Amino acid sequence: MTDYLHIGTVPWTDEDMRKSLKEFSEIYERRPMRDNTGGMQAPHMFLSWFVLKTLRPKTIIESGLWLGQGTWFFEQACPGAQLHCIDINLDRVQYRSKGAIYYNRDFSMIDWSSVSAQETVLFFDDHQNAYQRVMTAKWFGFVHLLFEDNYPPSRGDCYSLKKVFSHAGFAPISSEENSLSSAIKGKLASLFRPVASPVAINYVQPNTVDAQYLRGNIETYHELPPVFKTTNTRWGDLWDEHTYPTPTPLLSSVEEPYQQVFLDEAASYTWMSYVKLK
Ligand SMILES: C[S@@+](CC[C@H](N)C(=O)[O-])C[C@H]1O[C@@H](n2cnc3c(N)ncnc32)[C@H](O)[C@@H]1O
To answer: Is the CB of 70 under 6 A from ligand 1?
Structure first.
């Protein structure tokens, strides 16, 4: 069995998380969008809400809004926090917070000098290179980071911290691109495309250096546990510990009706992680 990686400590316990599930389920019932396909479901909304509620930051910077459902939950977790909401496509946002500041350019291109970096939580659900996000965050002086879609080596569309720690690198090939016809199409297209393609730009060679640098700059790396673990992953294969090392789930069976939603949406889990920088 491959153990999941854990570095440093967090100021909460799994028991604290279990005790908060009921309160969250009541908030989840009141969510503005019933269908948030393409965004976080109950397991990850719970994890991000719980961490924010526990850390109580003055400022939250959210990158990757989709319909804006996460923003609504962050307001429930930290009613007094100043929200900065970023998405390269704000047209899709259905829930807009009155108090938030919205941006349609990348996190790395925004001037954060007026924000108290140490009292801010960065929340990334923008499917960008997580390793580069850590470097940029460090440059700005931020300390607390949350990463959604912390994909294991064989999955996902971005270079995640889980991939970094696995020394896996990242080859941005979707299952569609993986098909033979797409491979031929890609090869033909590359003959007429002398400049580097986005795929080539995003490619990361398998390496140990990135993990070494992360370890040197991270005080805590904590993969947040799933509420329930199902037999199969969201990709339909076996959720085994060798391919998908996972922290122990908070619950093993539904004992109370409010817990059912976490089981119904359990396969949406993607190893969300909390990072505290040195
Ligand atoms: C998975 S969705 C976010 C889901 C959302 N957090 C939720 O749970 O409802 C990813 C979002 O990232 C946005 N995105 C893509 N590149 C981005 C970037 N560089 N900066 C910010 N957002 C970006 C996309 O437009 C998309 O809305």
So the answer is: yes
